[in-house]
Amino acid sequence: MSESAVQVIARGDRAPAEAAAAAIDANPLLENATYSILEEDEDKEIWRIDAFPTTDEEAEGIAEILRATPGLEVVVEKLADADWLAMSLSGLPPVEAGRFFVYGAHDQGKVPEGRVTLKIDAGAAFGTGHHGTTVGCLEAFDNLLKTESFEKVLDVGCGTGVLAIAAARTGSPIAVGTDIDEPSARIANENAQINDAKCEFYFADGLSDARIAQHAPYDLVFANILAAPLVFLAPEIGAALKSGGVAILSGLLRTQEERILEAYLPLGFVVEQTIHHDAWSALQLRKK
């Protein structure tokens, strides 16, 4: 862990921002790096990358890539010794994605009637609903629910568990999730209880874990992770799905779509829908 927490910020045009993000993804030493990329100022066409390294080596690696990308202005800021993640997310507005309304405790009085409400507070796990990847997954799921129902749903890399909880709250009798981060699995189970959702989340590495495999094949698999693990897990995700099942994949940039499709199309998947939010993509694929 870094002795003093820092945030690495880069601003510039879209092309260099996306190129830098792709370079971070391609660096094996930064495989677990946490960052976001979004359009900060639509009128001026300014894009922004925010990275939150957890070690000094990671901070140096990210800063080096960003500074080596022409067209980006890079600054490294020291973070105060506080729960900055919870503090920053606590002021975010609720998220609406189709029938779904994702909110935190600070929005308790803003919950509308007639919506599927998901209470997800800021914490140590990814997936409050504000990120473009999570919104894209919920929007794709909402569209699917207009014509289909899903008996068995798997959430790979569950984070807060918001996607599996959304499935349970809309009628899926079996909704399970897995994460390689033990605190995330614990937080997801806590969120399931808060939302009165019948879900189970497990700390596990891969989909061969007996608690996950016992419910296969699944009707729907969510995988909102990163491009590299999406590619690596393609055979396992394909094997976990029934024929005609759906995979909603995200955590990837628009520039990484081709890389993901090269891994999934040969396995018998076809593209049904692509949803974009800022630089992020959500792919809805169906197994033939």
Automatic annotation (TrEMBL):
<keyword id="KW-0489">Methyltransferase</keyword>
<dbReference type="InterPro" id="IPR029063">
    <property type="entry name" value="SAM-dependent_MTases_sf"/>
</dbReference>
<keyword id="KW-0689">Ribosomal protein</keyword>
<dbReference type="GO" id="GO:0016279">
    <property type="term" value="F:protein-lysine N-methyltransferase activity"/>
</dbReference>
<feature type="binding site">
    <location>
        <position position="157"/>
    </location>
    <ligand>
        <name>S-adenosyl-L-methionine</name>
    </ligand>
</feature>
<feature type="binding site">
    <location>
        <position position="134"/>
    </location>
    <ligand>
        <name>S-adenosyl-L-methionine</name>
    </ligand>
</feature>
<protein>
    <recommendedName>
        <fullName>Ribosomal protein L11 methyltransferase</fullName>
        <ecNumber>2.1.1.-</ecNumber>
    </recommendedName>
</protein>
<keyword id="KW-0687">Ribonucleoprotein</keyword>
<keyword id="KW-0949">S-adenosyl-L-methionine</keyword>
<dbReference type="InterPro" id="IPR004498">
    <property type="entry name" value="Ribosomal_PrmA_MeTrfase"/>
</dbReference>
<comment type="similarity">
    <text>Belongs to the methyltransferase superfamily. PrmA family.</text>
</comment>
<feature type="binding site">
    <location>
        <position position="179"/>
    </location>
    <ligand>
        <name>S-adenosyl-L-methionine</name>
    </ligand>
</feature>
<comment type="function">
    <text>Methylates ribosomal protein L11.</text>
</comment>
<dbReference type="Pfam" id="PF06325">
    <property type="entry name" value="PrmA"/>
</dbReference>
<dbReference type="GO" id="GO:0005840">
    <property type="term" value="C:ribosome"/>
</dbReference>
<keyword id="KW-0963">Cytoplasm</keyword>
<dbReference type="InterPro" id="IPR050078">
    <property type="entry name" value="Ribosomal_L11_MeTrfase_PrmA"/>
</dbReference>
<keyword id="KW-0808">Transferase</keyword>
<dbReference type="GO" id="GO:0032259">
    <property type="term" value="P:methylation"/>
</dbReference>
<feature type="binding site">
    <location>
        <position position="224"/>
    </location>
    <ligand>
        <name>S-adenosyl-L-methionine</name>
    </ligand>
</feature>
<dbReference type="GO" id="GO:0005737">
    <property type="term" value="C:cytoplasm"/>
</dbReference>
